[in-house]
Design goal:
Layout lengths: L9 H12 L10 E6 L2 E4 L2 E5 L12 H14 L14 H14 L3 E5 L2 H12 L5 E5 L4 H9 L3 E5 L4 H14 L5 E6 L11 H10 L3 E5 L14 H4 L8 E5 L9 E5 L7 H4 L1 H4 L6 H15 L3 H19 L11 E6 L2 H13 L2 E2 L1 E3 L9 E6 L6 H17 L5
Parallel strand pairs: 3-12, 5-6, 5-7, 7-8, 8-9
Antiparallel strand pairs: 1-2, 2-3, 4-10, 9-10, 11-14, 13-14
Helix pairs in contact: 2-11, 3-11, 4-5, 6-7, 12-14
Bound molecules: pyridoxal-5'-phosphate (PLP).
Pyridoxal-5'-phosphate binds next to helix 4.
């Protein structure tokens, strides 16, 4: 009998050690030696196409964003050294929140230090001990963790299934007619890239007087006439009470937000622990996020991004790969039967100069092993055709294509 607190991780450690000692590239220790552009980096001394960085709009190297960040860095310093409710609210944080309100045409906007904290904070705070949080079974870890941190009763419904949601809501209402209910969904699901049927899900929620939170982490910038996300794309923004999102993907920096028209929304600034008890974002980050949102709103990069996405998704599907979805988003996910083949696939793609995400449980739904790509508007067709060529070559080599 040992009391070592780390013993419970022995299995995971053994697997990791085997990989580290194999002499092959390790998908969990990738380090960028240098970054050339939103779509290329030097990894292990090799020029590599980046096909899995969620840099949907290529904003990380936008010159206007860099200039805004530099100016803020020079005027306001490297960090705020404090919480938003103490010394950590600067001119830039307020401007970013104003920009978000304008972007979403919403009455209120609160900026968090990450998207993870936005979900953690909003879910754990608004749903209290007598309330219910009803979440899609394939929800992101930050949604699950928001539930775990809060005191509400958590109920899961089958992924993207309005009938199952309706059934569960009806059961809650029969049992607890007065309970507050928060239904949480994502605009685009990050692993397979499928969209939520927001209208059907939110209609079920409204029928039972539940609030609706949509996490647009992978859809801000990408979908909707002005880039607000899937709810805008599907014309159902009026059914959404809270929109959560991140600046770490299309916006090209780091940070999270929640916007809402709820008249008491600002209360969160006083009671939401992941907002109150953490340092605010650095001024340079806030400034580049603000500029990126201004640019994204009127951008035609969405068109190029979705063209890129269709080119890769269709190319892979036509080649005979087992795909998660077929081009509903800039995400392309190839389903690989077993984890060892998925690791070998990833290593072979790296040798060919293409970085993709190896996505394995528990990060994936239904225990799937995935080669996951997230495309950028900054990718050229040549780069996409190169990815395709290498995916097919490695697929043939490893008998993934039969
Ligand atoms: C659906 C979803 N929500 C929230 C997050 C967290 O965002 P952040 O990287 O800003 O913490 C992610 C990030 O991967 C995500 O995919």
């Amino acid at each position: 009998m040992t009391h070592d607190l780390f013993d419970k991780f022995d299995n995971i450690l053994a697997e990791y050690k085997k990989l580290a000692e194999s002499g092959e590239l390790n998908p969990f220790t990738v380090s960028m030696d240098a970054v050339i552009s939103p779509t290329e980096a030097i990894i292990n001394g090799k020029k590599t196409i980046l096909a899995g960085t969620n840099n949907y709009m290529g904003m990380t190297y936008n010159q206007e964003c860099i200039k805004a960040a530099e100016e803020a860095l020079n005027s306001f310093g490297t960090g705020t050294t404090g919480s938003r409710v103490l010394n950590g609210t600067y001119y830039g944080h307020k401007k970013l929140e104003e920009t978000l309100k304008d972007f979403y045409d919403a009455k209120h906007a609160i900026v968090f230090s990450t998207g993870y904290q936005a979900n953690l904070g909003v879910i754990s705070t608004v749903a209290g001990p007598k309330d219910y949080v009803v979440i899609d079974a394939d929800s992101h870890a930050s949604i699950y963790d928001g539930c775990a941190m809060g005191n509400a009763t958590v109920v899961r419904f089958a992924h993207n299934n309005p009938e199952d949601l309706e059934k569960r809501l009806a059961r809650i209402r029969r049992k607890d007619p007065d309970a507050g209910i928060l239904v949480v969904i994502e605009g685009v699901y990050s692993m397979l890239g499928d969209q939520a049927p927001i209208k059907e899900l939110a209609t079920a929620a409204k029928k039972h007087d539940a609030f609706v939170l949509v996490d647009e982490a992978h859809s801000i910038g990408v979908f909707g006439k002005t880039g607000r996300g899937v709810a805008q794309e599907q014309n159902v923004e009026h059914l959404v009470d809270f929109t959560v999102g991140t600046f770490s993907k299309s916006v090209g920096t780091v940070g999270g937000y929640c916007v809402s028209n709820h008249p008491k929304f600002e209360t969160l600034r006083l009671v939401c622990r992941p907002y109150v008890f953490t340092a605010s974002l650095p001024p340079s980050v806030v400034a580049s996020a603000t500029k990126a949102l201004e640019l994204i709103k009127d951008s035609n990069l969405r068109v190029k991004l979705l063209e890129n996405s269709m080119r890769l998704n269709k190319g892979l599907a036509n080649a005979g790969f087992n795909m998660g979805t077929t081009g509903e988003s800039p995400i392309a996910a190839i389903i690989i039967d077993d984890k060892q083949t998925a690791i070998a696939y990833w290593q072979n793609m790296m040798k060919e100069g293409v970085y993709v995400n190896l996505a394995v449980p528990p990060a994936t739904p239904n225990g799937l092993n995935l080669m996951r790509c997230s495309l950028s508007a900054a990718h050229s067709f040549e780069q996409i055709d190169y990815m395709l060529e290498k995916f097919i070559a490695v697929g043939n080599k490893l008998n993934v294509l039969g």
